Amino acid sequence: MPHNIPLIAGNWKMHGLAQAVPEALSIDAAARKSNARIALFPPATLLDRLSQALIEAGSPIITGGQDCHCEADGAFTGDISAEMLKDAGAGMVILGHSERRHGHHEPCALVAKKVIGALRVGLEPVICIGETLEERLAGETHAVLNRQLGASLPEELTGQVFHVAYEPVWAIGTGHIPTDEQVVDAMVLVKSYLEDRFHGQVTPHVLYGGSVKPDNAAHLLTLDGVGGLLVGGASLKAVDFNRIITAAG
After folding, report:
1. Among 69, 99, 167, 205, which one carries the catalytic annotation?
2. Alpha helices per DSSP H over 57-132
3. Could you report the per-residue pLDDT of 111-136, keeping only the tens digit for each?
4. Pairing of strands 92-95, 124-129
5. Tens digit of pLDDT for each residue in 30-81?
6. Which residues lie closer than 8 Å to 235 by C-beta, 6 or more apart?
7. Of 97, 99, 131, 163, which residue is the catalytic one?
8. In this structure, are residues 135 and 144 in contact, taking their beta carbons and an 8 Å threshold?
9. What is the pTM of this model?
10. Is 167 a catalytic residue?
11. Is 165 helix (H, G, I), strand (E, B) or coil?
12. How far apart are the C-alpha atoms of 210 and 130, rounded to whole Å?
């Protein structure tokens, strides 16, 4: 997958009932005109419906899951396997989001197992990393990101299509945006790590996420190393997400 084509991903989190499907379809026109890849990550209850509606519309929009279990099946009440996501129409899956790492106490080792599960069925993992405000203020950002990258990215990713999303935890849903220098610094770290680890065998998108809005999307995409955006709340309204898609060119 060419890494010079931006990836604009909309994470709906725990939002969306049936009426969200026609709302999502109204971004199809912008997606068709865009040079970017566009992906939507609805809640699991809408994944099949949204995927089918987009397929019927002949839309280029990709759908994905917000998480998956590392096993293919089993006695795991409430969990969803990568196989189930694939069966519901997903082409991608978000893994290691800060709301999973911190809210559900998921360790990096579990994220890595989930990545292997996603690769097992051909889903493109979007692997999230990011530091908390306390870690940033303590000067631990580089150490945290390197640790998360090292422990969350299994060797099985070699030669596979995947993406890394840098989301400073303190910027998610807060309206706080890191400085340009802070974003670029993280992008340089991630790209350097990936080059050293995979020796140029993979060229993933490196996305920025955290309070991405229609008004700052275009600027964020101009920053060195930013290969796309992981959008939260602004992906829930077509009028906002359309503007972000348009900003990607």
Report:
1. 167
2. 82-87, 98-101, 108-120
3. 999 999 999 999 999 999 999 999 99
4. parallel
5. 999 999 999 999 999 999 999 999 999 999 999 999 999 999 999 999 999 9
6. 9, 10, 11, 12, 40, 241, 244
7. 97
8. yes
9. 0.96
10. yes
11. strand
12. 10
